[in-house]
Design brief:
There is one protein chain. This protein is an alpha/beta fold. The protein has 22 helices and 20 strands.
Length: 933
Amino acid sequence: MGFKKKQMLGFGLILLFLAILLSFMMVTLNNLKSSMTEIVENRYEKVSASMEIRQLFSRSDREILFAANDANKEERAESLEIINENHNLIESKIAGLSGTLNKVKAKQLLKEFETQYASYSITEAELIQKIKSGNSSDNLSSLMDDQREKRTKVISTMDEFKDYQEGVMNDTLNNSKQTYEDMIGFVIFAVILSILVISVTVVWMIRSTSKDLQSITKVIKNIDYKNLSVIPRVPVRTTDEIGDIARSFNEMAGSLEIYNQKEKDFTEKISEQNWIQTRVADIATMYQRIVDVEVLADRFITRLAPMMGASIGAFYVKRGEGVDMRFVKLASFAGDGEDSGRREFRLGEGLIGQCALEKKSKVIEEIPEDFQLVTTGLGEVNPKSIVIAPVVFEDEVVAMVELASLEAFTKLQKTFLNQVLDTLGITINNVEGRMEIERLLKESQAQTEELQAQSEELQSQSEEMQAQSEELQTQAEELRMINEQLEERNRETEEKSKELQVAKLNLEKQAEELKLSSKYKSEFMANMSHELRTPLNSILILSEMLSDPNDSKLNEEQQEFARVINSSGQDLLTLINDILDLSKVEVGKLEVVFDEMNLSELPELLHRNFDHVAKKKNIDFIIEKSKNVPDIFFTDEQRFQQILKNLLSNAFKFTEKGSVSVQIKKADEENVAQWIQTKGASNWVEIKVTDTGIGISKEKQKLIFEAFQQGDGATMRKYGGTGLGLSICREFAKLLGGWVIVDSEEGQGSTFTFFIPSMPEGFKNVDEAIAASPEVAAANHDDSAAPFGDQGEPDAGMMDEEDRDKAKPFCNKTVLVVDDDHRNIFALKNALKHEGMEILTAENGFECLELLEKGNNIDVILMDIMMPGMDGYETMTRIREQSKFEDLPIIALTAKAMKGDREKCLKAGASDYVSKPLKLDQLLSVLRVWLTN
């Protein structure tokens, strides 16, 4: 029987006895419950009903007596009504009892009671009738006596019925007590019996289980853990879980034996590998300092044969080429003089020749009995195994090895032979190379000796010939040394070439990664330009409109607020351009165009742009230009002016009183050379910007040229700024071939010196005019094209006249604004409506085409480029495909302003191109041109 079955049987018996015990208890309890229910519900209710009937009956009897003797008319009527109600209640109670009785005697008593009560009811009815008729009590006496007699019988019968029910209830109670006592006795008996059965079952289960476990424990104790090759097995006597444990143990023992055997095999393989590697290393060590093939052959076969367990062996080396090629025996092991094997053979001759031809090894195990090759002092012995193996170098057989043994060659010995022969070909080639070098050296020496002999013969004739001979000897020795050096250098060159190739691949990979990184940065900067310029566009347009003094809707203070907003927007635009300029320099693709500029106009240009700043701050602005400065200068004028603008802006910003001066002179090339290389420039110009401002401490003078850096935090909080200006100055100066330095003391002012070369031909060795990268190409596309502009304000009278002239082209003109940004639509709508134009709007290309198809009389279209659904390029292309819109002016607007976008827009069908953020005057000027034309 299984362990599980034993457990189930034992616990099943326990549960069975418990179930029987509980079943008996439940039956007994149900009987008790039934008895108690009989007592409480049935008998008690029947007794209670009989008592109620009697009470009703007695009450009716009293009411009859009261009505017959003492009651007046009203009281008599009330009593008669009570009697009638009691009669109805008694009948209903009797009907209820008759449906619940289950005893024959009870039914008989109730029947008798019904009969007597019916007779009583008849007498009662007659009595009531006479009472209603008004008869006196004397006239009712005989009827009252009859009624009294019947009442006595009814009461007697009812008492008998009640006594019977009470007797039945007492009997039921006594039966319940007896049942309870019987149940207690049985429970005690059943508990004792269950304890005995459970004890016997548990003892039986424990003894049967412990016996099987002891047999398993005994086997486990007998295991020899030091030798797991043979592990005792547990006898399987049962099919239960204990038997499963025994079978699992036996399977584990088998697995351990297999694992132990695998471990032994692995150890044996490791030992074999060590055996092979040790002997391979021994032979490799033997190769050292061998410079002759015959010596190599003799040492090799002498060392190899004992390692292979061979009794005899031969070593053949290839000689000659083509049809003259043959293999010649150079060494043998335990050979019998000249008769030990063949002296030479060709490819395909005999088994050894065939192995050389096929470049394959061959092992011969079945050797004829008459094949006797191994000799001893006592005679000749027949070998049991022969191995023939080629020595291959660069897919060419250079030697053959043949070994014979009195025992069969093992797999280990064959593996060892293959590994040894893998390196032997290289060794033979090296030794033959050394022999060839020695041969050539000997020939050279022989020739030298011959020349020396000839020189001695001619010495008497010409001292000059002797000197030449000695010189030839020296040259020959030098040539030998040079050859050795060249060989060494050749090896080094090959190694370096491999290293350079790896480095080249790494550099190409890094360049590709850098190119990809630059592309991602380009896309990010272009998108950032678009996202920043789009909201800035509406800010600048609306603030410019609100700050117009001709707008009577705003007071002076509100106009000032609008001017502050516009000024802040312009500062933000300048910051965006500075960041993009710095990014252009970092990627190394800033567009630099060298062209001639007129330096004679520079002082006037600086005065025009900064005199109003000096006047506002009440400081002096001085410009000095030396006469030796050339008027014509070759550089990128836009970057040159931007550098000067940044330097002067910083000078005025940090100067509260005193002066700002600019000194322009021809630079000393030697002085410039200490800062930067001066090759390639026709001449140099030095521009110094000096101020009497706050100055810069020595330790901060390098820091200020880094991006987003200023002297300290207090300077930034007091004077503002982003810290990009000087960083851009130095980077732009480097691109122009120049440099910017600073000389300053804190509290004493600063002098920034800008060295710049004149480059008529630009940079010859660098493609400086490569197109700028996309993310920054548009940073200065419109706004930075002229860093210095006329900042003076026109005469008011002239403005009024111009405004009147400008307003005329716009009146009653309809413009369609196509833009997905509601802020731009709102700004343009208000600006153009102020000029008297009718405005239509569309949020994408599809809406634009729908408005055109509806036949609206549209005079000009302002087209945004980057829109969802259908962008500006596709929309313009579709408009131009319709002949009726060929001459409709379309002005492209975009905040991305990528390099080449102007050409792309014009190719797609745009009439003109304006980049965001828009300048209202610029936009109106473009609209005026196209609406007038």
